[in-house]
User: What shape does this take?
Amino acid sequence: MAELTEGYQRPSTPAFIEGHYVHAWNEGTLDEFKANNPDLYSSRGPTKGQLKINFQHCNKMIEVLENDPLVMKALAGQKEVIMTAELFGIPWKVMIDSYQPELGIFADLKALSEIGGRWWNNDLQCYENFLDYYGYVIQMAVYAEVERLASGRRVKKWLLPHMVIVTKQDPPDHAVIYFDYDAIETHLAKVAKHIERVKSVKSGEVEPTRCEKCEYCRETKKISSAIHYLDLIA
Assistant: This one.
């Protein structure tokens, strides 16, 4: 909401730029991306003019993807396809990394820390895999429905979403994950269940809840009360 109403811009992070680096390769615009981002290169010392170490590692990640035939098959087709549709009473816009309607699939490319890790969900008080923790199944379900609506196909006739994962480990791990119709239907129902509050917050009718963890919340934080020390023990 700070971005929408106050013009707030999130600070760029190395992980974000690394993700863009890998996506630029998939788009076929990596050389242009390098030219437009001189900060990718070292500016001093014996490595001056060379790619920084983390982006050299991105090249390893790309090499792993290029050398796997199934990955390249999943990432074939049209690149960065933008689609719009009205869903749950509001307009949505998605950008599909690799689009192959003739094969009945589309794919999204992700660069992650690892595939098999577990992430703690404090609200649910349980560990989750990266798909649930980051909401990627919901993302794929929404992409599938927006694509279906934009393409004019009948109800529940979706393309099958795929995710191509490459990790930042050394050496990088990678996987191709697909989602079935049950996953799409179940997670669209989750969106429908929660979207009304999102709409109310976005329209300004309801105040957003601060997370007190992100850059914006830390920057604008005002303490209303002291914390008992036992509240920090978990």
Q: What stands out?
A: The beta strands are 78-87, 90-100, 105-112, 119-121, 126-128, 160-167, 174-178. The domain at 2-203 is CATH 3.90.320.10 (Lambda Exonuclease; Chain A). The longest strand covers residues 90-100. DSSP finds nine helices and seven strands in the chain.
